[in-house]
Amino acid sequence: MKRRILIVLTGMILLCSCGMNKAQTGALIGAGAGALAGQAIGQSTEGTLIGLAAGGFLGYMIGNEMDKHDQTKLNSVYESSPSHQQTSWVNPDSGNSYAVTPEPAYSNPNDGRICREAEILTNIDGKAEKTYATACRDANGRWVIQ
Length: 146
What we know:
The protein is an alpha+beta fold. The chain is 49% helix and 25% strand. The chain contains four helices and six strands.
């Protein structure tokens, strides 16, 4: 039974990890490991399901932490980089690179919040992309991507 679960979970990880972000991949791997641990400890369906849920949650949290470096850098660009000036960095853990060029801040006509748009050039796993993002200050003054 354990061998069958391990084979199915390994296959799921290999098939589903393509195109997933680190948090999602971490959740999938954590869920698989948690299910195996739950089955080994509890030797029941309930133990497996509890392990699956707990492992998925912890895996998501760990995977999400890996992206915190980039989120912190991006927030810093919105906060203090001059308009039309590109800021670049490379994530030391993933090797992914980013170049962000913010626009001037403006007051959102719908709700009065201060917002700022930015062009974001990324190179993630060798794939270059250009996107545009808008961030607005929340009630605590933090920039939140819309």
